[in-house]
Specification:
Length: about 300
């Protein structure tokens, strides 16, 4: 009986040791881990580009929230004042590391409250709210704001989560889903176009839409007094599209009218935009550059109606 009891004791000891090894208990006593102040979603330094914050094009201010947090198992029993600073040198470092060309968002395009924020006793975080005014953003530039924590009183500051960049993107007012109808004149496969397409923001005055019905090929539309197509680009999913220099845009003249269904000609399909009906009429043509192929052998007439 004594041997049985001893054997049972050994088994229990082994089991207890195994449980401790598989399920370690972290010691959160003050001696083991100290509280530290950080930006919880801090995104710089990094090897990856930060996702832009996309703002609607409107005159009222839109929010960016900059957070400070105490990273610890429980809130502190005292207030902590955290001071941020706006730092353009972070943007310079970002550009150098990632090959971008961001500039600091101009002062007139945003407002800042005080950059000191208090994390109250019993709480883990607090935030500063920055107001961005999309109608005042210089749409010809790639804009960014960058901040860092510079002081947290008597609390240590994290070395790797103390900086935050906010790339600012203003959604083009023409970004939307569209119903697209039209005709694709093609030397071997002419066909009607009837599809749902999307115009996505490239910049404040440029949007991108799908080219005809050719899958991964896209064109860009420059919005001035009238819509003007400027270039082909590829999303990389298909072979490179025709070079930009081989494409001609019809602004009332330029591309020979291609024989086809009635109504598709320069008079009824110039490049333009009707703000009342929210409709683009887009006519463009290209050649592949193959030997013996006539210029602008392929032409597309499309009407894009915003959904």
């Amino acid at each position: 009986m004594k041997n049985i009891i001893n054997l049972l004791a050994i088994v229990l000891m082994i089991s207890a040791t195994s449980c401790l090894r598989d399920e370690p208990i972290t010691d959160y006593t003050d001696a083991a881990i100290k509280p530290i102040v950080l930006i919880p979603n801090g995104n710089w330094p990094s090897v990856q580009k930060a996702n832009p914050i996309a703002f609607d094009f409107k005159t009222t201010g839109q929010d960016i929230d900059l957070y400070a947090r105490v990273s610890w198992v429980r809130p502190l029993d005292k207030d902590i004042t955290v001071n941020f600073a706006k730092d353009a040198s972070i943007i310079t470092a970002y550009n150098a590391a990632l090959g971008t060309n961001y500039v600091e968002l101009s002062a007139g395009a945003y407002t800042l409250p005080t950059l000191a924020v208090v994390i109250p006793a019993g709480k883990l975080e607090a935030k500063v709210t920055i107001k961005v005014f999309a109608d005042k953003v210089d749409l010809t530039k790639n804009n960014m704001l960058a901040f860092k924590i510079v002081d947290a009183g008597d609390q240590p500051i994290a070395s790797n989560f103390r900086q935050m960049v906010f790339p600012v993107l203003v959604k083009n007012i023409y970004e939307a889903n569209y119903n697209v109808t039209g005709y694709f004149f093609h030397p071997s496969a002419p066909r009607s176009i009837n599809a749902a397409k999307y115009m996505a923001t490239i910049s404040g005055d440029r949007v991108e839409g799908q080219l005809g019905d050719l899958g991964g090929w896209f064109f860009q539309v420059q919005i001035t007094n009238e819509s003007k197509l400027t270039s082909f680009i590829s999303n990389g999913a298909t072979p490179a599209p025709p070079a930009a220099g081989l494409m001609t845009i019809d602004n009332g003249a330029g591309i020979p009218t291609y024989p086809g269904p009635g109504g598709f000609d320069h008079a009824t399909y110039p490049n333009d935009y009707n703000a009342t009906t929210k409709t683009f009429r887009i006519h463009y043509g290209y050649a592949t550059g193959a030997a013996g192929e006539k210029e602008y052998t392929r032409q597309m007439y499309e009407k894009w109606v915003r959904q």
